[in-house]
């Protein structure tokens, strides 16, 4: 099977050969020139046909094939139910696109604790098993998401039978048992686990100066800061071959990425198996700035900590996190400003989004020697979490495929970027 390197080599060879043919034609003596003319023309036509074949072959390849020499291109598995608790009616179409375009896949929700373990401690692996089976069948690298996250653990995990807060030993026992049960079930099948998710935040002191630290969560409040180390040791014990990641958002913030890099280095120095940083990529059209992104990519590269871009999308809507939970259907005063493209999105907006994606991926390619994977947080616009968070009822267009499952300008921008780079 022809690969992208073959295509590039053939393209260069075609150009070089055409140039040499021109030289041959100008250097042939007058006698015998006509006898060579048909032969030269046949070679010329053959080379042009070869070039067109390889050019077409490259254009037909999915993104993951074109980026295979740089990093994996991943997406998420929605499964039967979306994050807003509605039924996924387009799972089959999503899976067709996944098979062609991506080579890595992350569980969006089905591997979060609230979806696996019930109130009485019973486990339900029905959807997560389907996810793993699908990924193995399609030959996709699997990312488990996520084991320890304050937003995904059921409340009873942190309480006793009377509803009081459990002790440190009890919560550590529950954590270890949960990690052992889930990770060992998929031992040898899942290559990466997001073990701890979103444990760090940025704060301001009394002088307005920013600093980062571990945030208050039930895990932190009951166990203490060493809950992170305990979690990674438990995950490594359950599957010693699995690569374990720390995943978080807003790493464009200098204080946050500096803290996380130091945390990962310190854990590694203590013999804790932590193999990389997962940096979410939920972005907007103008935020964060490119120099901020470059800082966080360079910070990880300089520290020799492998980086994964884990949740990539670019919203075309205004940042609405200050109105989290509000619905544009109820708040008419907010709808025009925060949901401006409810019917359709202008082409010029999609072109700007394509430019934004190209700028981001240019930076990813710059540091590709330290980046293992870039995962899009969704397959197509219609099922993106951006449509119901932070505000309910919005219509966003953050991904590479539109609501008709057609490739958007951003898709072609990323495809052409890597072709041009070669």
In CATH, the homologous superfamily of the largest domain goes by the name Glycosidases
CATH topology of the largest domain: TIM Barrel
CATH architecture of the largest domain: Alpha-Beta Barrel
Number of strands: 11
Helix content: 40-55%
Any idea how many domains?
2
List segments where confidence is low: pLDDT < 50 over at least 5 consecutive residues. 1-26, 51-55
Number of H/I helices: 14
Judged by helices, strands and strand pairing, the structural class is alpha/beta
Q: What is the 3D form?
A: globular
Reading the helices and strands in chain order gives: HHHEHEHHEHEEEHHEHEEHEHHEH
CATH class of the largest domain: Alpha Beta
The whole-angstrom Rg is 25 Å
Mean of the pLDDT scores?
90
Percent of residues in beta strands: 5-15%
Distance between the termini: 19 Å
Q: Which sequence of strands runs across the widest sheet?
A: 1-2-3-4-7-8-10-11
Structure in words:
By secondary structure, the protein is α/β, with parallel strands linked by helices. It is 45% helix and 15% strand. The protein contains 14 helices and 11 strands. Helix 4 (91-101) links the parallel strand 1 (72-77) and strand 2. The chain is globular. 37% of the residues are buried.
Descriptive terms for the model:
14 helices, 8-stranded parallel beta barrel, TIM Barrel, two-stranded antiparallel ribbon, 2 domains, alpha/beta, 422 residues, single chain
Give a brief description.
With 422 residues, this protein is of the alpha/beta class. Helices cover 45% and strands 15% of the residues. It contains 14 helices and eleven strands.
